[in-house]
Structure formats: structure tokens, C-alpha cells
Amino acid sequence: MTDTVLTVEQMRATERAAMEAGVSEWELMQRAGEGAAQWIMRVAAGRPVAVLCGPGNNGGDGYVIAETLIRRGYEVQVIAPLEPRSETAQQARAHYSGAVFAATTMREPVVIDCLFGYGLTRKVEGEFAELLEQMASSHCYKVAIDVPSAVESDTGSVLGPLPDYDLTLALGAWKQAHGLMPAMAAMGERRLVPIGLDLSGARSALSRRPRLTPPAPDAHKYRRGLLAVVAGAMPGAPLLAAEAAMRAGVGYVKLLSDHDHFGAPADLVIEQGKLANTLDDERIAAVLVGPGLGRDDSARERLAQAFSCRKPGVLDADALYLLDPELLAQADPGTLCVTPHEGELQKLCEVFGIGDGSKLERARRLHDVTGMTVLAKGPDTVLASDVMTSFFPRGSSWLSVAGTGDVLAGIVASRLAVHGNPHRACEEGVWLHHEAARLASPAFTASGLAHAVKPAMAALL
Ligand SMILES: NC(=O)C1=CN([C@@H]2O[C@H](COP(=O)(O)OP(=O)(O)OC[C@H]3O[C@@H](n4cnc5c(N)ncnc54)[C@H](OP(=O)(O)O)[C@@H]3O)[C@@H](O)[C@H]2O)[C@@H](O)CC1
Ligand SMILES: Nc1ncnc2c1ncn2[C@@H]1O[C@H](COP(=O)(O)OP(=O)(O)O)[C@@H](O)[C@H]1O
Ligand SMILES: [K+]
């Protein structure tokens, strides 16, 4: 799988396995460096290149890159504050035929950062920090090899100066930092350089843009899925979610609400009356509950009723504040998706006894403990389920406006009603949400975003 994401420990184990199978570290480094050089030649297009080389194997890659460029006629300068320490990096240094400077003014229009890769262990300081600062303030085209050098590969945290890169070339496999903030925002375009590692058996991946399908030739509204949106105290949020859901592929959306909803579209069916009765419909394929639900006893009662119909479901917003082990015992967690933002994730973790950790670790543990599919949303979104852990490209920052979470919940619920697969519904939901944000003009509001779900569907068909 080319989209595989590995931790540093998994990366080292995978490289060890390759070496045990007879591929030397030097061979892997040559594949990495030469593969990266192919991309660099495309962007440098003949212009002079500076390569910053660190003391480890990331620096080793840098010498291979530099030598490959020299052999293709490029003017290259290596800047290396320290001599290489690892044996393979020393081998790469010995094969490099060009000039090496301990420090110099960076004037080249293209600069390649090979100071540290996944071996970064502490804060970047001294001459290394100065080089990254110089790179940050220069107008050059900036390329990070494997990961930006001040970035911790497993967490995406930043341990030193972080230039705004134009291109990041992941070597062998993606690292978690390629899908996590704040690192992801500085990486520019991200591309993978395969080096022939065996990545089978990995359980984390960058999500691939999905291809959605039109309704089957014999479809009718119920076969396409009937989604019940359970409203509560506040009328606006479930209406927004329903508006988005109607455009995300489902055949029928019913809003189960006792509000009047003046101005609701004519094509949205609003059913009033006792929730136990309105939910008593075998044809319901999925239930969405949480947006606008409220947090009082009657809201808790509505959530329990939503569980009692034992349909696949999406829980968002207030449902995430009400959920606890007692309520969850009344549901079938394997069919449920939860879509928490950071605050909601924290609340869920408290209630289900999950300790501290990064967002990724907490989302993963929440899934392990509860069995629910966890879509932990935000500027970096991670999805944890029994299928795998998925990371996503960054969405538009215009999504940072009230109500866009309700829209996401509606889209995910719609996809769940279409096919009943929680992991797939969440992945499709994130891509549709991001695509809708791209297609809605900047400064959109949540209702504009809900309307843009229709062209987003068209773009993903
Ligand atoms: N293995 C393979 O098969 C392949 C690996 N590949 C490449 O190797 C990279 C990983 O290489 P790596 O493990 O040598 O680590 P790397 O990131 O170069 O840094 C380690 C060095 O930096 C030092 N150091 C750390 N932090 C520091 C700091 N803040 N300030 C100062 N020094 C610091 C650390 O020193 P120490 O902590 O031991 O004191 C050590 O000397 C990987 O990202 C990929 O590019 C590819 O070629 C494909 C094949
Ligand atoms: N800076 C950002 N970049 C990308 N996506 C964002 C950003 N800020 C928020 N989002 C997305 O917008 C949505 C906000 O959801 P949420 O916080 O639940 O808002 P609300 O409760 O107002 O509906 C989430 O899907 C989140 O991933
Ligand atoms: K690097």
C-alpha cells in the first residue's frame, strides 16, 4: 500500500526487515537519495542547489542527492556543520565529489533540508537552528527530505525553526507527522519516494480521495437509504445537518423534530410526535443524533431512544457530552461513528477513563475501549476504527466557522445510511466536507457549505 503511515519504530523495523532480506542500508539510502533527486530536478529545472546535511542518515541522503545532481550537471553546494557519524552516511559522504562547507551564506535558489529525519531526538539549536532560520528567511524554493528537520516524526510537534517548505519528500513510507499539525501546515506539497520496503500489514494510511458511485439503476428512495435526524432543544443545528445530508447521496432525510422549522426546504420531511413512534420504522438505515439536542434529561432520553432502534448511527455535539458507558451499553458500538472536536474528545476521554496523550493516541484508545469509530476532527483530522487509522490532507481554514461540524455530521450520517460502513462513511464524509469547502467561496457560512455538498458530490463521482 503506497499510502502507508509508519511510526519511527515501525519504520526502523521495516528497514531492518529489508536488510535481513539482503538489501543493505547503503542500497536503501541510494534508492532514497536518487528518488528524491528526481523530484528535485523537476523543481530546480537547472538552477543551483544547496543541500544542508546533518550528521545522521538523513544527512547521508543529502550527500546522495547532491552527488546525483552533480552527475546531472547541476551546480551544487553542501553545507554540513558536522561530519557524518553513521557508517552509511560516511559512505555517502565518501561518494560525494563536490564541495562541502561548514557554514556559508545560502544564496542558491533551491535549498534542500537534510539536517534531521526521523532520528530527531531533541530541540534543534546552535548552527543547525541558524541554518534553518536562514532557510526560513530566504526566498529560495525549499524542500524537506523525509520530514522538515525541526519536526518530530511521530507527533508532528516542532522542536526548532520551521521554514515554510514548498515540497516535502517522504522516504519509503509516510510518517505520522505528514498528517498532523502543526507540522503538516509547513510541508507544502507532499510526495512519497518509494524505496522498495515491504509495507504489508501496516494499519495506518493517508486517506485516498474516494470515488463515489451514483445510485444503482434499480434504486428507489428507501434503497438509497432513509436517514433519521433526531432534533432536540435547538432547531438550527439539526436542520443544517439535514440540509447537508440531503445532498450527500442518501435517498430520504427525515427530521424528527417538534419545532416548526419555518423556512425549512420543502424537500425535507419533518416528522413531529413521540420519538419512540417516529423512530419505529424498519426502513430507517441510519440515525444522526446530537446537533441541537440539548443536554438535559429529556435530551438524554432522546439519545437513549435513538440507541434503542439499534441502527447504525452518528453521534455529534451534545450527544458526545451526554454519552457515558451506561448509555453506550444500550447501543451496538461497532455501528456507531462519533465526530468529536478537541473539547468533545476530552470529555469522552474523561468519561471512558482514557488518560492523556496526543489527539491521535486518545482517538485510537477511545476506539479500542468503546468499539466506536472515532473521527477526531479539526485542522488535522484523524480517524480510528477497527479497519485502520486514517490521516487526511488539510481542509480549508475557512471551515473554522460555527456550524460546519453539524454539516460534517450530516454528510457522514448520509454516507452511513447509503452503505452502513462506519469507517468508509467517515472517510467519504471528510473528503466531501473538504471538497465542499473548496467549492464554496471563501468566507462561507455553514449553510453555504451545506449547499456546496452537492457540487462536492459531483466532483467525487
Ligand atoms: N535506516 C535506513 O535504512 C534508511 C534511512 N533513511 C534516512 O535516514 C533518516 C534517519 O536517519 P537516522 O536514524 O540516522 O537519524 P537522523 O534523522 O539523520 O538524525 C540522527 C542524527 O542526528 C543527531 N541528532 C538528533 N537530533 C538532534 C538535534 N536536535 N541536534 C543535533 N543533533 C541531533 C543524532 O545524534 P544523537 O541523538 O545520537 O546525539 C544522530 O547523529 C531518515 O529520516 C531517512 O532520511 C533513508 O536513507 C532510507 C534508508
Ligand atoms: N483551521 C481549520 N482547518 C481545517 N478545518 C477546520 C479548521 N477549523 C475547523 N475545521 C473543521 O470545521 C469543523 C468544525 O466543527 P465543530 O468544531 O464541531 O463546529 P460546530 O460545532 O460549530 O459545528 C470540523 O469538521 C473541523 O475539522
Ligand atoms: K529533513
TrEMBL record:
<dbReference type="InterPro" id="IPR029056">
    <property type="entry name" value="Ribokinase-like"/>
</dbReference>
<dbReference type="InterPro" id="IPR030677">
    <property type="entry name" value="Nnr"/>
</dbReference>
<feature type="binding site">
    <location>
        <position position="405"/>
    </location>
    <ligand>
        <name>AMP</name>
    </ligand>
</feature>
<keyword id="KW-0413">Isomerase</keyword>
<keyword id="KW-0479">Metal-binding</keyword>
<dbReference type="InterPro" id="IPR000631">
    <property type="entry name" value="CARKD"/>
</dbReference>
<feature type="binding site">
    <location>
        <begin position="377"/>
        <end position="381"/>
    </location>
    <ligand>
        <name>AMP</name>
    </ligand>
</feature>
<comment type="similarity">
    <text>In the C-terminal section; belongs to the NnrD/CARKD family.</text>
</comment>
<comment type="similarity">
    <text>Belongs to the NnrE/AIBP family.</text>
</comment>
<feature type="binding site">
    <location>
        <begin position="57"/>
        <end position="61"/>
    </location>
    <ligand>
        <name>(6S)-NADPHX</name>
    </ligand>
</feature>
<keyword id="KW-0547">Nucleotide-binding</keyword>
<dbReference type="Pfam" id="PF01256">
    <property type="entry name" value="Carb_kinase"/>
</dbReference>
<keyword id="KW-0511">Multifunctional enzyme</keyword>
<dbReference type="InterPro" id="IPR004443">
    <property type="entry name" value="YjeF_N_dom"/>
</dbReference>
<feature type="domain" description="YjeF C-terminal">
    <location>
        <begin position="204"/>
        <end position="460"/>
    </location>
</feature>
<comment type="subunit">
    <text>Homotetramer.</text>
</comment>
<feature type="binding site">
    <location>
        <position position="341"/>
    </location>
    <ligand>
        <name>(6S)-NADPHX</name>
    </ligand>
</feature>
<feature type="binding site">
    <location>
        <position position="149"/>
    </location>
    <ligand>
        <name>K(+)</name>
    </ligand>
</feature>
<dbReference type="InterPro" id="IPR017953">
    <property type="entry name" value="Carbohydrate_kinase_pred_CS"/>
</dbReference>
<feature type="binding site">
    <location>
        <position position="113"/>
    </location>
    <ligand>
        <name>K(+)</name>
    </ligand>
</feature>
<keyword id="KW-0067">ATP-binding</keyword>
<keyword id="KW-0456">Lyase</keyword>
<keyword id="KW-0630">Potassium</keyword>
<feature type="binding site">
    <location>
        <begin position="117"/>
        <end position="123"/>
    </location>
    <ligand>
        <name>(6S)-NADPHX</name>
    </ligand>
</feature>
<comment type="function">
    <text>Catalyzes the epimerization of the S- and R-forms of NAD(P)HX, a damaged form of NAD(P)H that is a result of enzymatic or heat-dependent hydration. This is a prerequisite for the S-specific NAD(P)H-hydrate dehydratase to allow the repair of both epimers of NAD(P)HX.</text>
</comment>
<keyword id="KW-0521">NADP</keyword>
<dbReference type="Pfam" id="PF03853">
    <property type="entry name" value="YjeF_N"/>
</dbReference>
<feature type="binding site">
    <location>
        <position position="58"/>
    </location>
    <ligand>
        <name>K(+)</name>
    </ligand>
</feature>
<comment type="function">
    <text>Bifunctional enzyme that catalyzes the epimerization of the S- and R-forms of NAD(P)HX and the dehydration of the S-form of NAD(P)HX at the expense of ADP, which is converted to AMP. This allows the repair of both epimers of NAD(P)HX, a damaged form of NAD(P)H that is a result of enzymatic or heat-dependent hydration.</text>
</comment>
<feature type="binding site">
    <location>
        <position position="146"/>
    </location>
    <ligand>
        <name>(6S)-NADPHX</name>
    </ligand>
</feature>
<feature type="binding site">
    <location>
        <position position="237"/>
    </location>
    <ligand>
        <name>(6S)-NADPHX</name>
    </ligand>
</feature>
<feature type="binding site">
    <location>
        <position position="292"/>
    </location>
    <ligand>
        <name>(6S)-NADPHX</name>
    </ligand>
</feature>
<keyword id="KW-0520">NAD</keyword>
<feature type="binding site">
    <location>
        <position position="406"/>
    </location>
    <ligand>
        <name>(6S)-NADPHX</name>
    </ligand>
</feature>
<feature type="domain" description="YjeF N-terminal">
    <location>
        <begin position="11"/>
        <end position="203"/>
    </location>
</feature>
<protein>
    <recommendedName>
        <fullName>Bifunctional NAD(P)H-hydrate repair enzyme</fullName>
        <ecNumber>4.2.1.136</ecNumber>
        <ecNumber>5.1.99.6</ecNumber>
    </recommendedName>
</protein>
<dbReference type="InterPro" id="IPR036652">
    <property type="entry name" value="YjeF_N_dom_sf"/>
</dbReference>
